[in-house]
Design a protein that fits this description.
This is Metallophosphoesterase. By secondary structure, this protein is α/β, with parallel strands linked by helices. The protein has a single domain (14-320), classed as Purple Acid Phosphatase, chain A, domain 2, CATH 3.60.21. 31% of the residues lie in helices and 20% in strands. The protein contains 10 helices and 13 strands. The chain has helices at 20-25, 44-59, 80-90, 99-105, 123-141, 144-147, 194-203, 282-292, 298-309, 315-318; strands at 29-30, 33-36, 66-70, 94-96, 157-161, 164-168, 207-210, 217-221, 225-229, 244-250, 261-268, 271-278, 319-320. The strands form 2 sheets. It has a 7-stranded mixed β-sheet. Helix 5 packs across helix 9 (298-309). It is globular, with a radius of gyration of 18 Å. 51% of the residues are buried. The protein binds fe (ii) ion. Fe (ii) ion binds next to loops.
Length: 323
């Protein structure tokens, strides 16, 4: 929640407040297979690759996956045509809000990027993100009819795959920009904690799927439940691995092309759940990125190295389920 002392990029606007109990009341979107795509960050080459994986599953005789794009699908696309392309492509899928879209629809005074960054995030990173959202808001203003398409998007979704009930959020069940489903917030493997128990109970779900924190992990909990945070579907998720990550939940086991991989896999009820690493055309993305974000620009300074090298994060730290 916002506090008087919080600065732009660190505070969490009160309009971001959500409730786990709301998820329990939502009509579920039923599917045989869903790809949960959090944090696309304007990366259309990644979306190409994710859609190609969906087409691959169909070609393999599996049901058509439903893509659920759970927020922060805009970010690097701070150029009107790029913004329009992202908006058009994402609107073909089931989308929900992230803090980025919230700050495009209705910028909150002093919110900056609306990221609600914790104290562990350096001030410089926060400042760069605030500069990025300012440029993105300017691009969005020049494409105003498209921003209106964001207004009806929900902040949360409820899905059901077989018997597996799924709550999809951007940050955590209490806030669009919450950090309660960050890796550091998790209890030791094999344990749960009161806040997670409250979220699972009030949302009435077996799986919570999130992103926002940009650091992927998956963890199982007693009682056949799990949290999957896909980190980012628009930037690499592990060191020296250029692939992006999505969360796949399906009635059928994944049949992946050779250059894809499941970084973490579990079962919840009758569903197969995978953190899937998807290769994509990074060079094509960087051509557009570098035109919009040249040397010295905030996105170049803050994110380009992550895009080329990956974050300091590894699969053995991210996979916390019994397989
Ligand atoms: Fe976010």
């Amino acid at each position: 929640m916002a506090t008087a002392s919080a600065s732009p990029g660190r505070l969490c606007p009160v309009t971001y407040r959500t409730r786990a109990a709301t998820i329990a009341k939502l009509a579920p979107l039923h599917a045989h297979s869903v790809f949960i795509v959090g944090g696309l960050y304007g990366n259309l080459q990644a979306l190409d690759a994710i859609e190609a994986l969906a087409a691959h599953e169909v070609a393999m005789g599996l049901p058509q996956p439903q893509l659920v794009v759970n927020g922060d699908f805009h970010w690097f696309d701070a150029e009107p045509q790029w913004f329009a392309d992202v908006q058009r492509r994402v609107s073909a899928h089931a989308a929900s809000l992230g803090n980025v879209e919230a700050e495009l629809i209705d910028p909150q005074p002093g919110a900056g990027c609306g990221c609600a960054y914790p104290a562990s995030t350096p001030d410089q990173t926060v400042a760069w993100s605030n500069a990025i959202i300012a440029r993105l808001q300017e691009a969005a203003r020049r494409a105003d009819d498209l921003v209106s398409g964001l207004r009806g998007l929900p902040p949360q979704r409820r899905l059901q795959v077989g018997d597996c009930r799924i709550g999809v959020v951007h940050g955590d069940p209490d806030s669009l920009a919450g950090w309660g489903l960050e890796l550091d917030a998790m209890p030791p493997v094999g344990h749960s904690d009161p806040r997670l128990e409250q979220w699972f109970r009030e949302a009435d779900v077996d799986l919570l799927a999130s992103s926002h924190t940009c650091r992927c992990f998956a963890q199982g909990f007693p009682g056949d439940r799990a949290v999957f945070n896909n980190g980012s579907a628009g930037m690499p998720d592990f060191k020296d691995d250029s692939r992006v990550m999505i969360t796949r939940v399906a009635r059928h086991a994944a049949v992946l092309p050779d250059d894809h991989a499941s970084a973490c896999r579990t079962r919840v009820r009758d569903a197969y759940i995978d953190a899937i690493l998807v290769p994509w055309d990074r060079e094509a993305f960087l051509q557009r990125f570098d035109r919009v974000w040249p040397p010295g620009s905030p996105a170049m300074l803050s994110y380009r190295r992550r895009i080329t090298d990956g974050p300091d994060h590894h699969a053995n730290a991210a996979c916390r389920v019994s397989q």
